[in-house]
Design brief:
This protein has 218 residues and is of the alpha/beta class. It contains 6 helices and 7 strands, in the order βαβαβαβαβαβαβ. Strands 3-2-1-4-5-6-7 form a 7-stranded parallel beta sheet, sandwiched between helices. β5, α5 and β6 form a beta-alpha-beta unit. α1 crosses α6 and α4 packs parallel to α5. It is globular, with a radius of gyration of 16 Å. The two termini are 32 Å apart.
């Protein structure tokens, strides 16, 4: 039986492409909020689709129970990929948008990690692949809230890496620029997403390098 990998935000974009590539070596559990998209990908790769909002502890409790009942624990690879962005000047920013970004981009991965980490520690191995973006490396115009959330996720990831290293667990941090994905569908922040790299290209680079590198800048 293949080891288990969980990918959040797995219904579209980079999460979907990572799921397809990683399914060669793992049984993929696809996690997200839109069941129909998860089911489509799951059927393609013979994975397991579980609808779950990672910002809600109740949903994560149900996720854990499903994994346990299906004998999918411990998880060997966790891909914290789900993310949301709101863009514009600080003058135009809304506090509820900040809340959504910090809940999805920071709190969600922290909660999921906390749920899955004990069994990974007990097994003495495992990897977290945290999708950070170049917004976790430098400030960008009209992205102050989004960048702040990604810097917070980077701080969590770097600290966690030091904490879990003695337990035989890695935390890989991936930093990539914009991609041509549905991430931009409801935003005019990027004028022509079609000129960006495809998520498939980025996924291929990450999968190739993640086994030997703890920090990947694409």
């Amino acid at each position: 039986m293949k080891p288990t990998a969980i990918i959040t935000g797995a219904g579209t974009g980079l999460g979907k492409e990572l799921a397809k590539l990683l399914s060669n070596d793992y049984h993929i559990v696809l996690v997200g909020r839109r069941a129909e998209l998860l089911n489509e990908v799951s059927a393609e790769i013979s994975g397991t689709a579980i609808r779950c909002d990672i910002t809600k502890e109740e949903d994560l409790g149900k996720l854990y129970k499903q994994l346990k009942s299906q004998d999918l624990l411990p998880v060997e690879l966790v891909v914290n990929n789900a993310g949301v962005g709101h863009f514009g000047s600080l003058d135009e920013a809304q506090p509820d948008e900040w809340d959504e970004m910090f809940n999805t981009n920071v709190k969600g991965p922290m909660l999921l990690t906390k749920v899955l980490l004990p069994e990974m520690k007990a097994s003495g191995k495992g990897t977290f692949l945290n999708i950070l973006s170049t917004a976790a490396l430098r400030g960008k115009v009209n992205e102050s809230g989004y960048v702040a959330s990604k810097f917070a996720f980077r701080g969590f990831s770097e600290s966690l890496a030091k904490e879990v290293e003695p337990a035989g667990i890695r935390v890989v941090r991936a930093y990539m620029g914009g991609m041509n994905t549905p991430f931009w569908d409801e935003s005019d922040h990027v004028k022509n997403p079609g000129k960006m790299r495809s998520p498939k290209e980025v996924a291929e680079v990450i999968v190739k390098r993640m086994r030997d590198e703890d920090e990947i800048e694409v």
